[in-house]
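Hello everyone,

My group is preparing for a crystallization screen and wants a predicted model to guide construct design. The compound we'll soak is zinc ion. Before spending weeks at the bench, it would help to have a computed complex in hand. I've included the protein sequence and the ligand's SMILES below. Output in structure-token form would be ideal because that's what our pipeline reads.
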Amino acid sequence: MFIGHFAVGLAAKKAAPKLNLALLFISCQLLDLIWPVLVLMGIESVSVDHSATVVTPFNFSHYPYSHSLLMTLLYALIFGVIVFKVFKSKTAAITSGVVVASHWGLDFLTHRPDLPLLLSGQKVGLGMWNSLTATVVVELGIFAIGVFLYLKASPLMTRKRKQIFWSMISFLLVAYIGNIWGPKAPIDTPPQAIAGPALSMWLIVLWAYFSDKRVK
Ligand SMILES: [Zn+2]
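Reply:
Good plan to model first. Here are the tokens for the complex, ready for your pipeline.
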């Protein structure tokens, strides 16, 4: 899943208003923020396989450290503890932990059975990416709900916040459309060329920070 993850981060603002949207975006995308780093380091692997699924041409052949259920639960726990230490809020800690774990849940829905449960062994996935219609309807649907819930929890009072927020949402939508309907990566694309651009997700975190920043 792609923008569906951001929907969870946006929706979580209501449960944890203390947390800047940047932190909620780090939570919902933590696995995909770690993944390109591990691929660039040669620890995890990815390749292009046009028969992988209808939606994505990527074969996530080995990514147990960023995407196994075991590691996800560990990241959720660590992240929750850090948030608790910094913000002294149990609700914020639990919310961010659940948001971290939600990434695996949504990936489980969309990926073919390539998500490891542990560091090796059985892999799972319900394969919604095999249906373009289901993917687009579900993902855009939850994204719209996420945006709606965020705006209810954190109304955009200033013109500046409106501009930053809506430009970020538009960017995510354009990137999503490009991902789904744009040209697919050539078969011989090296893993670094797949993981490198994925690092740009950190930019969205920065964008979110400014879109959620209140003028005191
Ligand atoms: Zn992922």
